[in-house]
Amino acid sequence: MATSSALRARVSPTVSTRRASPPPSARVAAPRAAAAAVATTTSPVVARAAALLGDDLSVLSAAVEAAELVDALTTGEPKTVFAPSDAAFAKACEELQLSKEEILQLPNLVDILTHHVVPGAVAGEDLVDGQLASLNENFPLTITGLTCKERPPCECFNVSGACISETDRVVGDLTIHVVDEVIFPPWSAPAKVLTPQQVLAFEGWAPEVINGRLAMLGFLTAVVQEVATGHSFATQQLGENFGVFAAQVQLWAFASLVPSFSSNEGYTADPFTMEGSKTWREVFKGSPWTEEARKIFSPQVEQLNGRAAMVGIVSLIAVEAFRGGEALF
């Protein structure tokens, strides 16, 4: 495999850049600040590779070397690299609870890195909404013109969820566009890891979602049983069918909650983040659960139905108690 010194001998010593949207002061300060922040925790492996693509792309440079992709990037044919900055790798490490060294040792590192590379030289001014075939043949990149959510009102091109913060850095035959996130293809990395405290917190997604699902199940069951037997909700759930009721509560709570603690291969149990999951979008492809159907049966609709069911159960119990325990239906 070619070394970083060999690569440096093959590339132009001049690096040309064009920033996307930040003001001139931010253009200079941001890369320096990011490089300084990473320098405090840079490992020897990352430090040795820092000059491969640039000091602010030291982790990506180390990943290219670790995946033995230096030769593939220096074949003499022009390529475009959507390059995650060191800050982007730091963000990925924090979200996935992995160290930089563990990122470099991922078994599918080649698939992840080739997902960032497009054949041919694509300048920033030539980027348009649509798909670009990457060297990872299974998954193309998607280019859209979006507003950065974390740094409004930064108007930018968005590549598969990552904002392009700098365009047209030229290193040898490579056209480099710096992005603020590592672009993981579907099934290539775990979803963001959440602690039980985050999932079960009052402002977390789980309490209301799980209670809403239990309420919808309980309300429907109660109405059907009242019609069939003439027994009130309290008589059914706390007397005749307490065992079945308790088992249902545990089963539905377990099925809703446990996946959030594994988040395997990019899956997320939070219904409000499923639409943004690349893995789930791949799962939905070709299924009856189309994008149009997901807009109708959305997490917001489920949340509204859950709230209505919770109000319905409380109202049913109150009315039946006022009627002296007599079933309403």
Question: Low-confidence stretches at least 5 residues in length (pLDDT < 50)?
Answer: 1-51, 149-154
Number of strands: 8
Q: Helix and strand succession?
A: HEHHHHEHHHEEEEEEHHHHHHH
How many domain modules? 2
InterPro entries: Adhesion/Biosynth-related (IPR050904), Chloroa_b-bind (IPR022796), FAS1_dom_sf (IPR036378), FAS1_domain (IPR000782)
Domain FAS1: 44-183
Protein name: Early light induced protein-like protein, with fasciclin domain, chloroplast
Keywords: Chloroplast, Plastid
Brief descriptors of the model:
47% helix, alpha+beta, FAS1 domain, 2 domains, 329 residues, elongated, eight-stranded mixed β-sheet
List the helices and strands and how they pair.
Blueprint: H1 4-10, E1 18-19, H2 24-39, H3 44-48, H4 58-66, H5 70-73, E2 79-84, H6 86-96, H7 100-104, H8 109-114, E3 117-119, E4 130-132, E5 141-147, E6 155-159, E7 162-171, E8 174-179, H9 196-200, H10 206-229, H11 233-240, H12 242-257, H13 278-284, H14 291-296, H15 299-322
Parallel strand pairs: 2-8
Antiparallel strand pairs: 1-7, 2-3, 4-5, 5-6, 6-7, 7-8
Helix pairs in contact: 10-12, 10-15, 11-12
Describe the structure.
Residues 44-183 form the FAS1 domain. Residues 1-26 are annotated as: Disordered. The protein has 329 residues and is α+β, with helices and mostly antiparallel strands. The chain folds into 2 domains: 4-179, FAS1 domain (Roll), CATH 2.30.180.10; 196-322, no CATH class. Strands 1, 2, 3, 4, 5, 6, 7 and 8 form an 8-stranded mixed β-sheet that branches. It has 15 helices and 8 strands.
